[in-house]
Amino acid sequence: MSERKANIKRETAETNISLNLDLDGSGKYEIVTGIRMFDHLLAQLARHGAFDLSVSATGDDAHHLVEDVAICLGKALLEALGERRGIVRMADASVPMDEALSMVAVDISGRGYAKLDLAFADNDMTGFPTDLIRHFLETFAIEGRLNLHARTLYGANDHHKAEALFKALGRALDAAVRVDSRRAGELPSTKEWLEG
To answer: Do residues 88 and 122 touch, judged by C-beta distance below 8 A?
Structure first.
């Protein structure tokens, strides 16, 4: 099996991003976006997805920066997966954090779509608007060409709900991109085709 890695660079008038992803890593991360809460959430994704992830990003505002990191992460996932032969393809995870519970289901289908039910109260994200989480997930799903269903089932603290959500995303992605030795070399589809 070839290395499942990608290096993505994106430079626009609004942002400058360098992102490296290794799907077969161990959860190491080095993330500097200038938005501490965003760095923290991306770290959860890497650690609990067992991906190696490095992100260096600067931007003119939080919205553009979060969106463009999502674009780069989606492109990196797509590139690192290659033809997607032998992968499990679909997976889900539910993760609690104190009083909060979040769940994520993914299908690495080649079709980008996000269905989100995120019950945030905008109460404690240290200057990081919770709507950027929605925007990040939608953009990531489209660029990564995956179905992504995410839900915060309950919780009082937005930080806990968001952190559980990113941990669940990491765990679901880790399970979905794993290579199933029983299906080595096969596309995980009865059509023998994954879009994209």
So the answer is: no
